[in-house]
Amino acid sequence: xxxxxxxxxxxxxxIAILAFFLINILFITYVVDIEQLIIxxxxxxxxxxxxxxxxxxxxxxxxxxxxxALIARPVWWKVTIWIDALFFGPFYVVAIYAYLKSKEWIRIxxxxxxxxxxxxxxxxxxxxxxxxxxxxxxxxxxxxxxPWLLFPIYIIYRMWRxxxxxxxxxxxxxxxxxxxxxxASRAAVGKIKPRPxxxxxxxxxxxxxVVAGASAGLGAEYATQLAAKGLNLVLIARRADxxxxxxxxLKTEYPIxxxxxxxxxxxxxxxxxxATQTRDIEIGMxxxxxxxxxxxxxxxxxxxxxxxxxxxxxxxxxxxxYLLGQRRASRQRGGIVLMSSLSATxxxxxxxxxxxxxxxxxxxxxxxxxxxxxxxxxxTACCAGSTDTPNYRASTPAKNFTSVMAxxxxxxxxxAALGRNPSVVPGRSNRxxxxxxxRLLSRRLAVTVMGRTLRGMYS
Length: 459
Prior knowledge:
This protein has helices at residues 12-38, 53-65, 68-72, 75-101, 107-130, 138-145, 147-160, 172-188, 201-205, 217-228, 240-253, 270-277, 303-331, 352-372, 390-394, 407-417, 428-440, 443-458, and strands at residues 3-5, 167-169, 208-212, 232-237, 258-262, 283-288, 334-341, 377-384, 423-424. It is an alpha/beta fold.
């Protein structure tokens, strides 16, 4: 039997469940529970970074006024809190997606969740009524906990009574109602033009690609992967010996042409020189990977260093995108990749100016993504995290708090995103970190976390 999704607007009970999940994930699991895990003794503590002091004060007020077990925090109580933090929190994220998208594989996990939640709340209320930390305000506490009794019961009932909670069988009346549209579709078949064949990477972004900052690390990896796709290369770097060595290797391994330019990308006329020296070839792709990053306190760096960061990281990619991008727009095809960073999404202490330059690259690329796509030019910004490159190793981080990606993975994900997304964050752990920093944490807290992270890496 064919089935069709039941619209969420017709599933009012599921709307209520979604609201319950949201309240839990936004307040209970990652505010109330986190407070209880990081403050073992509410009578002697210092305010943590998270939860905010107002939330900590509200939780303690409730405990002192109505709920002694919340203040006493016996061992069994902490067990229920750990279950909430480790199991329920991730479940809410997955379940919200599944309920919104009518994914029926969430049925059994929902039943398991509701059963565990019902057990937890029953144990807690038993302590509230009869235990060593019984509440003197039982009606208030019961009323406050009532949703955590009723919703699990309803979820079990909702998911148990049907193996297809989000879909329904397509009836004959549904088929009759759809028949006019089906007839119209059949009548239009003869008018549909054949779908155009897919354009190859080379046809879209070739025959030449400019890779700025190509001597090592990500730049060399971009050059290698573009060469594997058949694109001829213009490799640009300050150190001629490194870029010449790379050029020889790529010409040996792939049937391509390679030019090299030894140019300091911080100099004012760098982009003009590149545009002039590539005027005789058809450039379809620009990858700007060059970057200057000075790590350390803001005033410990000379002003000239900060200005060179702006010249290398902002002015030259802007000019190249403008000068070379005009050629591609006139051809109605081409691509631009600008390297940004995870540090671009908030202020980042110890690399404040570098992070600001990378924010410029991110915003520039995202704007051009929308502006140039009507002209056939694809643009994306790569917001890479820690990557195993010579520059990263030379910065000698004491420790790293996120996974360090291989350059090959970063480049592969970025090229795959070209033509699809205005920006890309390579790596699952990096995407998770970006989501937390940009969507869940306040701006102030995100900057504080980045400051502690960088100081931990470079103290």
